[in-house]
Structure formats: C-alpha cells, structure tokens
Amino acid sequence: MANRTVDLVVIGGGIHGCSAALHAALRGLEVVVLEKDTVARHASGVNAGGVRRLGRDYPEVPISQRSMEIWHRIEELVDDDCGFQRAPQIKVAETEADFEALKARAAHLRAMGFEHEIVLERSELREHLPAVAEHCVGGLASLDDGFALPYQTTFAFQRKARSLGVRFEENCRARKVERVGADFRVSTDRGVFTSRKLLNCSGAWAGEIARQLGEYAPVAATAPMMLVTSRMPRFCTAVVGNETRPLSFKQMQNGTVVIGGGRRGRPNPETNASELIFSELRQTAATAIAVFPIMKGATIVRSWAGIEGRMPDGIPVISPSATEEGAYHAFGFSSHGFQLGPGVGEIMGELIATGRTNAPIAPFSITRFAPGADASGSSLTHAQGHSA
Question: How many CB atoms lie within 10 A of CB 194?
Fold first, then answer.
C-alpha cells in the first residue's frame, strides 16, 4: 500500500471504533480503521444488544443520555434501523433490601438532575412483567430504553463510514505503534500506516497499544456468556435485570429468550477463543427461573461467549493520551459498552477533530491508573448486566 499519511488511524473495528471513524469522517477527516480480525468479531458482535441507560455508573449517565438521543434517531445517522426497538428496561428487586437500594439510586439520580429511572411498586412491576415471580417486591425502570441487534448495528456504522471514505483494513493486526516526528507510524501485517492522529479502540487488546504509547491501562480480557432458548409463548416485552444477581433477560419477537448477565467464561485473547463454564451458565439459568418461573420449561438451544475488555473499576477509558499529543483512547467498556457506542463515537470525533469536547469525560481518564494516581476517580456504583 502507498504509505500516505492520513488524518486518523483507528485501531479496532468494534462498535466504538466504527462509530468514532464515522463521526471523524463526518467532520471531514480522512480515516483508516485497522482490525486484527473482522469488524464486530468480538464484544460488538456477541453481546446482548441492550440499549440501556438503566443502572449505569453515575459518571456514565450523561454520555448514556446523549447516546440514547442518537439511538432514537439511529436511522438518520447510519441509514439503518439497527434492529432498534424501544422496550422498558427493568431491574427487579427480589427482597425489600434490594428494593430500598433501588429507591435510593432513583433519588440519587434525581438529585443529579436525571429522571429517566422510575420506581415500580409491586403492582406496577406486574403491569410490566405479568409473569414475574410472586416473591419479587418491586423494581426500577427506564421505560424509554430498548435493545438492538449488535451485528446489524456495528455493520451499519461500518457501511456508513465506508460511504464517507473511511478505509477498513481487516485481518490487519497493529503490531507496533510509534511516534515519528509529528506523525504516528503503525506497523501491521500489511505494511506501515502513518497518521496525524491515533485512536485506540482495541478492546481487550488495548492495554498493549497503551503500553506502546507509554501509558498504563490494566485492561483484563473477560468472556461474558450468553444463552438462547427455543421459542416460548410471548410472556415478556421488557429487558429485565436483577438488583443483586447477574441477569440480562429478554424475549425476542420470535419467542426465543436471550439470557446473559455478566457470568463469565474463560477468555484466551492470544487465540481469540473463549471457553464456556457450564456451572456458571447453570447459575444464569437458575436466576432466570427464579425471576420468571415459566422458564422451568425452557430448552437451551445454544450458548456462547465473546472476548471483552474490563477495567478494574468497571468503567471505560474515554480519554486523550497523557503521553502523546494526538493519541486517544476509547476501550475497556466492561461488558456494558454497546449502548454507549453512538455517543462515545460522537465525543471522540469531536475531540480528535477539534482538540476539545464539553462532554464530561474526566472520570474516564487513562491517568486514573497511573502509578500514584488518586483512586477517588473510580466509579461510585458498578452497573450490572451484560453489554447493555
């Protein structure tokens, strides 16, 4: 390939890399995306597809809100509806203590100026979830959230970006990143790419790119597991989580039920493989049955796990580099990055094109992991649920 300097090289072709590439192209930048496998191969293609503001870590809430605005008009942005459907997201409380915790969260959000999470008393919970178990005492809901189809969504961002001139180099691993004068040189299996700006969106593999930029990012590879049942009579029109037990539960239009929730298999990022742990999947199934007794009769037809990057504090890195001007990071979404994809891409496009953003990204700085950093920037509460 001709070694021509472009405005931006994005490393990683997941939802965040594709979204950032699109938004950078909308601002007139010439962009190349390098993906070591294929677009949506990892977390962006295998997650539960939840489009969820409910239960977000408090620092994530403003970005999640902005992203939700984009989701509600997603077809205007990417010329595809992405399979997006509005559906209530509901977190169920199985005990009074859980219910009190959910009420306290709703009050905290109201004090922050956000009113999208509402408390559901016992009777209201049953209006939304007629099949919920008798012992469940209440819930917390974000009624204007929803879900979408991960592959369809990520490919829609890729297609739209490509239509604006973004070049995607798949099966092209970024081996070495270095600063040469004013530019970045990225050595790959397919030659050297040079760019004025660099964005690290490489998920579970992002720590190594950060290291080459002289930054510490303790991203760990995890393998969130999912399972799907055979078709069942329609009994649930919401996306359901649980206050204390890992759960992400929804019934699709065809009657199948998709269940995740953060229980993890064994990832092997070196080989791209992930191994299911069936004792953990059994616990996922047991939680689903506890909340919806009708699930006792369900048949599991398939299960899988993807490879995702997780940060120690459970929230992502969305940040300029602290060591190299013109380098940026967006990774470590810790199994709840899918909904944030449109909004984070918009933020990164603005930040890379203009050097600034008004988005409140300070809590997501990569510097929070630097030796001696003040740990007070860690999140206040950790979201449960998988890739929502």
Answer: 16
What is the rounded distance in angstroms from the CA atom of residue 268 to the CA atom of residue 83?
Answer: 30
List the one residue out of 63, 42, 43 whose CA is nearest residue 52. Answer: 63
Inter-CA distances, 363 with 61, 298, 308, 350, Å? 12, 42, 21, 18
Instruction: Count CA within 13 A, CB hemisphere, residue 286.
Output: 8
Q: Helices 341-354 and 15-26 meet at what angle, rounded to 10?
A: 40
pLDDT tens track for 109-135: 999 999 999 999 999 999 999 999 999
Phi then psi for residue 379, to 5 deg, are -70, 155
The structure's pTM equals: 0.90
Q: Which domain holds residue 254?
A: 88-144+221-310
3-state secondary structure 64-117: HHHHHHHHCCHHHHHCCCCCCEECCEEEEECCHHHHHHHHHHHHHHHHHCCCCC
* 203 within a domain of the structure (yes/no): yes
Question: Which residue has tokens 């203009």?
Answer: 354
Q: What is the pLDDT of residues 234-256, one digit of tens each?
A: 999 999 999 999 899 999 989 99
Shared-domain flag, residues 207 and 226: no
